[in-house]
Fold this sequence. Notes:
- The protein has 334 residues and is an alpha/beta fold.
- The protein has helices spanning 58-67, 73-79, 84-99, 127-139, 153-166, 184-196, 211-220, 237-247, 256-259, 261-274, 288-300, and strands spanning 2-18, 21-35, 38-44, 116-117, 120-122, 144-148, 173-177, 201-203, 225-227, 251-254, 278-281, 323-326, 329-332.
- The two termini are 29 Å apart.
Amino acid sequence: MTAKFSSYILNFKQPGGTSRGILHTKETFILEIFENGKKGVGECALFRGLSCDDVPEYESKLKWLCENINENPAFLSSKLSAFPSIWFGYEQALLNLKNGDCLYFPSSFTKGKARLKINGLIWMGDASFMQKQIEEKLKDGFDCIKLKIGTDWKSEKEILKNLREKFPEEQLEIRVDANGGFDFNEAKKVLKELSELKIHSIEQPIKAGNLDQMAELCEETLTPIALDEELIGILEPEEKQKLLAKLQPQYIILKPSLIGGFLGSDEWISYAEYSGIGWWMTSALESNIGLNAIAQYAFTKNPTIPQGLGTGGLFTNNFESALELSGDQLRFKV
C-alpha cells in the first residue's frame, strides 16, 4: 500500500456561533490509501482549539503514517493513540479501500432501505437569527432540535420559553449545548430553569476538567447532563471507565474525530451501556467524507434516539455528499 494526505479548508456559508467564539473556516486533512489500483479515502478532521491532537507536529505525524502505512494496524494504533483524528482518518481509509465507492459499513442503510433520525442544529446568534433557524427546522419536519446556548442566557431562556409555550415536550424535544459556557453557580441555576422548561438535556454545562463540580451537577440535576468536551483527551480504557464512574452522567456525546474514531467510540459505548448511561453520535464539523463514515457507523449501533448528524450543508465548498436529508431522516443516496 501507499498513502498520501492533503489539507483542505472548509468555508462556512455563514459564521457559526458557539460559546467559544465565531467560526468562519474549518481546517481538515484528507488521507488516501492506494493498493492494487484501488483507493480508500478518510478524513483526519482536526479541530483547532478543541482536539487534543492540535499540536505543532500534527502534519509530521500524518507524514509518518503515510511512510509507515504497511505496518500492522495494532502497531499504528499504539503510535497514534495521542492523535485520535489521524487514527480515525486511517480507519476510514482502510474501510473504504476494502468496500469501495462511498462505503465504510455496508448495511441496509447504505442500501437505501433504512434511515437515521437526526436532530436539527440551531446556531448561536441574536434572538431573531435563532428564531428564524428554529422556524425553518420546524417547517422541515424536525421534532427534535438542539440549540447552542451559553453567551446570553437571558435572551436564550426567553427563546426556549416561547418555544416551549408553542410546542409541548410531547411534540418537540429540545436539547441544548452550552460548550462549557457557564460557571458552576450559573450552571446550577440554569439546570433548574431548564427543567422547568422540560428540556431534554444539556451538553457540557461547565468547562471540561472540573470533575468534582461536574460530578455534583450530574448527581443533583433535574435536567439530564450529556458529557461532550469532557471526553476529549481521555484515551486509555481505564481512564474512560474511571471518568464515567466518577461523574455518572445521564448521557455522553460521541464525536469520533475527537475521541479516537470507531475504536474509541466502541469503547465509550461499551462502558456507557454497562453503566446505564445513554449516548448519541454527533459530528465535529467534518466534511462530507467524515460525516458519511460517521453516519454509516452510527447506524450499525442501532441508535434509539435522534443523532447529531447532518449532510455537510454548513460549508460552501464541501465535497459531494453521499447523504441526503428528507425531513429529519438522513439517508444514503443509492
